[in-house]
Amino acid sequence: MAATAKSPRVKALVAGNWKMNGLKASRKEVTALAKRLAKGKRASCDVLICPPATLVGLLKEAAKGSKIAIGGQDCHAKPSGAHTGDISAEMLKDAGASHVIVGHSERRADHGETDAVVRAKAEAALRAGLVAIVCVGETEAQRDAGETLTVIGTQLAGSLPDAATAKTVVVAYEPVWAIGTGRTPTADDVAKVHAAIRAALKKRFRGEGEAMRILYGGSVKPSNAAELMAVPNVNGALVGGASLKAEDFYGIIGAYQA
Ligand code: PEP
Predict the structure, then answer these.
(1) Is 211 helix (H, G, I), strand (E, B) or coil?
(2) Would residue 83 show up in a list of annotated catalytic residues for this protein?
(3) Which of the listed residues 174, 215, 228, 248 should we mutate to test ligand 1's pocket, taking the one with most ligand atoms within 8 A of CB?
(4) CA 95/CA 130 separation, integer angstroms
(5) Tens digits of residue pLDDT in 39-96
(6) Is 238 near ligand 1, meaning CB less than 6 Å away?
(7) pLDDT digits over 120-138, tens only?
């Protein structure tokens, strides 16, 4: 498959979100992926796996010597303190993470995370030296009501830190109705939303906004990755289910292999 992503200045990122899946034995998926990446055609994208926090250290070790980076799926806004069960950005960094996802729709829905909370978490990521992957996306009802661009605009305005740069923040557009459902928007619909996100990023962050990565997420799999990754202003993917198996994830990374 050809590397067809349309924003040549922006190096793509293919990121896997393992959600609440994975035990120590899942290490074998990372070693298998590292082997495939070493043997196969050179991929022009960065590769990231975000396992549950319990596996960050182990998978960092397993990924040693490969191009696979390891990230967290969420962090607390504070660096430390009396917050039972929470994990700070500094702790993720200390365990070997380079990135952290914030504002995933499952966190927004299951934990009532508002844009302000997401923004505080993104600021914490920057404070700790992690890249923040900030997720936005409309629900099906919002889409049906024609509110997609308004919803995304509001989420971006409220969730992104003022200090965001192309190196420290990645935006992930994930339509909530496409996550884990096998349904995806058309390439035209993705193009419209990504163009609107790019325009908003440029308006607020100027040159940094032009170079900031915008990932598409929602039912990306090997069979649709090339088409979705070729859409203008799509600079990679955030992948849930299909990132759990090295073979499937490698198939998605294939969209960026020359
Ligand atoms: C996700 O949860 O970020 C996601 C995109 O999931 P899936 O690829 O399974 O739709």
Answers:
(1) helix
(2) no
(3) 174
(4) 12
(5) 988 889 999 999 999 999 999 999 999 999 999 999 999 999 999 999 999 999 999 9
(6) yes
(7) 999 999 999 999 999 999 9
